[in-house]
Design a protein that fits this description.
The complex is a heterodimer of chains A (239) and B (474). Chain A is an alpha+beta fold and 239 residues long. Chain A contains seven helices and ten strands. In chain A, helix 6 packs across helix 7. Chain B is elongated and about 80 Å long. Classes of the chains: A alpha+beta (239), B alpha/beta (474). The interface between A and B is medium-sized, with 29 and 25 residues.
């Protein structure tokens, strides 16, 4: 496996990094970077008001997800700032107002850039892919099943660079929950190739941009073999 | 600047050594190091430096490094930190190749010490000199009769001089403690580097050197922490590519990387986990306990490749058979049945008692007829279902113990299959037998757990490399 990126794309990523005033990039900025690497990121657009939110929703098609865009609010769900499965104009409009209100209550000083509108992606098996830059060993990649598996059981595998395709495969198979991806009890086999590609690209991103300190793609939905994956939430943290 | 390996060559195989701070008082480091060099018959020149003495321990004493007539490969500096910069200037003038700095009170003592340490390293770099230490207790290359250390570990009787295990330790005290015990048990550790503060040469440099060194079959490392992770990774990769086993004990959790982390990944990838990851990823055998370090090195010095993980268990006690078999299964190995031919042969050589199976209980009859034991073992060696054997001896003692040890050694010489011995009786009751096994390089352990854990290291190492090789051939 080899990874390259065109110069204009690389420059765009560098611009996003350089222009960020905060060390924690917003979901919109993070996902923009990921999409420049051709990672499977659903479309994401910022709406400044109800009307824009409705217009974008109609364009991408219902149902949609609305989330706050604010550098200060990183735990969006905890703040009541994520509304999913919105089926029509009325629900979008109500969700927009509710999110803005919750955001102000959660942190009166937060700078609110608007609300992101994204398609309500089909549920898949939740995984997490991440990176933490270790002061001694450099980028450390992390993979695990998402949700309770990562939070409670801490069933994850780690790797340092260099990371070839063989090592990535070992990394995926190493977690205890691997059978859940490999077709457990009649379930269809999940798209392991899509996971490999995500890990490989996150390793590449970490290597190319030393300013990036941490990356969390959590959760990523993985679908059945051949059907790919979808990065549902993403956070990139700079040094 | 010298390249690191060349400098380490001068450190571990010097023709001439100067001891700055030499003393007639053997209770001082500068006295003891000369006493050890002489007592262990160092074959090169020793130049004691002490302006106050004419002669030190029978050797002509020089007042300064620059007075020495010939070249100096290695200068051991056992002096207070105050006069160190001046002496380093002398080393530069004399064009000393490598210096070993015992002096403590540097980086480990705070900012001021760190500043002095940096100055000394800079001075050395400017003059092409490389440094072992500071805060080292010295180095040993037993096979070359170089004992340039003042560690009490050098008091050990009968230190083996044909070993193939090389050992790097940042902590000289811990290193000295465990190496003396290992030497006493005839474990062949030839090179020992106490690397101290690693202001210049560091663990990765020593690993790189031992990877190239033909006298090193296994590399043991006791690591507290390092700054240059990239360099360590590269050295471990070099060892892996040369298929030379590295066994490492990683001490503690350093402050590095303990800053607040904001992501999931950050909180799950702490310092210790990252070290464990690096070891596993590069095929390093991790020593979880201090005993594991040399236990596993002994195993890997015996052989570093094994066909599979099917273990034959032979013991003089049924209970012991169960202990060994349980431990094998627990650590992911198998204790398979013998082939039908093997079972038949076992029945033939042992007609009247016991059950011809794996694990095999020879019962106590071994004491009346040791041939049964030897013939039984031969069946296990010949059986294609078996890749290695663990022999657990319990209360076997005295002359019969020696006989059994002789037989095991003879059998091992004719097979590629590792034979590990767990011998539980008090050392003094079977000393001769145990010594024979150790001298012959048969991995010997005081209990089943340590024997099986060490055997598992060979399985782990072999599996890691078999998997890598399989990938290469795809």
């Amino acid at each position: 496996m080899s990874n390259t990126i065109s110069v204009p794309r690389k420059n765009t990523i560098q611009d996003i990094i350089n222009s960020s005033e905060n060390t924690i990039l917003t979901e919109v900025e993070s996902k923009k970077i990921l999409s420049l690497l051709d990672l499977p990121v659903p479309s994401i657009e910022i709406a400044k008001n109800e009307e824009e939110a409705i217009k974008i929703s109609k364009n991408i098609g219902f149902p949609v997800v609305l989330k706050i865009v604010s550098p200060e609010i990183t735990h969006k769900s905890d703040a009541g700032c994520v509304k999913v499965n919105l089926k029509d104009e009325y629900e979008v409009s109500e969700a927009f107002l509710q999110i803005m209100l919750n955001a102000k209550n959660y942190n009166p000083n937060a700078q609110l850039q608007g609300v992101s509108v994204q398609p309500n992606v089909e549920k898949g098996t939740e995984i997490i892919v991440g990176m933490n830059r270790d002061e001694v060993f450099g980028p450390v990649l992390l993979f695990g099943l998402g949700g309770i598996f990562v939070e409670v059981v801490k069933d994850v595998s780690l790797r340092v660079l260099p990371l070839d395709s063989y090592e990535i495969e070992k990394m995926i198979k190493e977690i205890k929950g691997y059978p859940l991806l490999a077709g457990y009890r009649g379930e269809k086999v999940k798209d392991i190739e899509a996971i490999k590609e995500i890990i490989e690209k996150i390793a590449f991103l970490s290597e190319e941009f030393p300013e990036i300190k941490e990356i969390d793609l959590n959760p990523v939905f993985v679908y059945d073999e051949g059907k790919g994956a979808s990065v549902v939430d993403a956070r990139i943290i700079l040094d | 600047m010298n390249n690191s390996s060349e400098s380490i060559q001068y450190l571990l195989n010097p023709s001439t050594i100067a001891i700055v701070g030499a003393s007639n008082n053997v209770s001082k480091p500068g006295g003891r190091i000369i006493a050890y060099l002489k007592e262990k018959n160092f074959e090169g020149e020793i130049y004691p430096i002490n302006p106050k003495e004419e002669e030190i321990q029978g050797l002509k004493s020089y007042s300064s490094l620059t007075d020495i007539p010939g070249t100096v490969d290695l200068a051991c500096l056992l002096i207070p930190s105050k006069i160190l910069p001046g002496i380093m200037e002398d080393c530069a003038t004399k064009k000393v190749k490598t210096v070993l700095i015992n002096t403590a009170g540097f980086a480990e003592m705070g900012a001021e010490g760190e500043k002095v340490q940096k100055e000394i390293v800079q001075l050395a770099r400017d003059n092409g000199i490389r440094i072992c230490g500071p805060n080292t207790i010295g180095v040993v290359n037993a096979n070359k009769k170089l004992f340039a250390s003042f560690s009490m570990a050098l008091e050990t009787k009968n230190i083996p001089t044909d070993g193939k295990i090389s050992f790097v330790t940042q902590s000289g005290a811990i290193g000295g403690g465990i190496i003396s015990k290992a030497w006493e048990n005839s474990v062949g550790i030839n090179n020992w580097v106490s690397s101290g503060n690693e202001a210049d040469l560091n663990t990765a440099d020593y690993i790189n050197y031992f990877v190239e060194d033909e006298q090193s079959d296994v590399i043991c490392v006791f690591l507290e922490g390092i700054n240059d992770g990239e360099k360590l990774k590269n050295s471990l990769q070099a060892a892996r590519d040369a298929k030379k086993p590295v066994v490492m004990y990683k001490n503690g959790r350093t402050a590095v990387g303990q800053k607040s982390v904001k992501s999931h990944t950050g909180s799950l990838a702490g310092n210790h986990e990252v070290y464990k990851t690096v070891l596993k990823q590069f095929g390093v055998i991790e020593a979880n306990e201090l005993d594991d370090l040399f236990d596993k090195a002994i195993a890997l010095a015996d052989t570093n490749s094994i066909k599979g993980k099917n273990i034959g268990v032979v013991s003089t006690s049924g209970g012991a058979c169960t202990i060994v078999a349980d431990k094998c299964i627990e650590l992911g190995m198998e204790v398979p049945d013998l082939t039908p031919e093997g079972k038949q042969k076992l029945k033939e050589v042992l007609p009247d008692f016991g059950t011809p199976q794996n694990p095999f209980d020879t019962t106590a009859m071994i004491t009346s007829n040791p041939d049964y034991f030897t013939n039984g073992l031969q069946v296990f060696i010949d059986d294609e279902n078996i890749d290695a054997m663990v022999i657990m001896l319990t209360t076997l003692a005295g002359s019969i113990a020696e006989r059994v040890a002789d037989d095991i050694i003879k059998l091992r010489q004719k097979t590629n299959k590792p034979m590990f011995v767990a011998w539980t009786i008090a050392e003094s009751l079977a000393k001769e037998g145990m010594d024979k096994l150790r001298k012959a390089g048969i991995p010997l352990y005081p209990n089943a757990e340590r024997a099986v854990r060490s055997l598992q290291a060979i399985v782990e190492f072999s599996e890691y490399h078999a998997e890598k090789e399989k990938l290469m051939n795809v």
